[in-house]
Amino acid sequence: MSKRVEVAAGVIFGGDGRFLLGQRAPDTFYAGYWEFPGGKVEPGESPADALVRELDEELGIRVRVLRPWITREHLYEHAHVRLHFFEVADWEGELRDHVHSALSWEPVDAPEVGPMLPANGPILKALRLPRWMGITHATDIGVARQLELLDAALASGLRLVQVREPGMGASDLCAFAAAVVKRARPRGALVVVNGNAELAAEVGADGVHLSAAQLAGLEARPALEWVGASCHTRAELERAAGFGLDYAVLGAVLPTATHPGQPTLGWERFAELVGGLPMPVLALGGLRRADMERARAAGAHGIAAIRASWDQS
Predict the structure, then answer these.
(1) Of 146, 201, 288, 307, which sees the most CB atoms within 10 A?
(2) Are 131 and 302 in contact (CB under 8 A)?
């Protein structure tokens, strides 16, 4: 096997939410293909330091804030690469490209340029995963109230909903999940159903969210577009990655009203557990919208929450 090459890559966002891609020059491997800016990690460099240097050399920009995101490996004909992706949260300077044939700002939902480097397909899908997951609790507050709060949250920008109602009967759950999908679809929001791939398919949801116990017994990835899982340990996170799941939810990070007295991870341990994973991870447990920046600085893709998702105060 060829020697593994460490590469740092940056997801650079513009003010309108688009991200930057560069087209590889004619004298390079995969000439004409599009990629995320970045380059090789030199001996003695950290991936973060390498990316700061590369973006200065390639694009003439100075990075102010980097957020660790995901790490993926890919075996090309000419090299085995490990790509350390970071979100470039803040930068300064005027873009002046020195290595690419062209640059293009692309929308997250539907990039228009191509072809992309083969390693980047899962990255584009991961970028489509919204940053906040609202988890339902209609069994606690009533179906009518939950749907009312869902409508308000969707109108305010919620784009990822997990239907999680462990105490609800089968027929009621089917009706409730269908109602959630009906409301989410016009807003372009994704819906995953907790623990039941068959129900998810029946109501037209986008995917299924597996419990840690279901993940432990999993033999094959469910045949749905979006599949995620609840995790509590590094071993569970790596198992989710091994099945090619699209995301994981890890917690509890902070104390929660749902599970009082449960041990918590804290942000330092959370960052340790998610480092180097190939899929995005949402932080769960006692978190509010004000925690988003702290979560992403620790390597979280975003936040999953029950009460904070529906709090209208």
Answers:
(1) 146
(2) yes
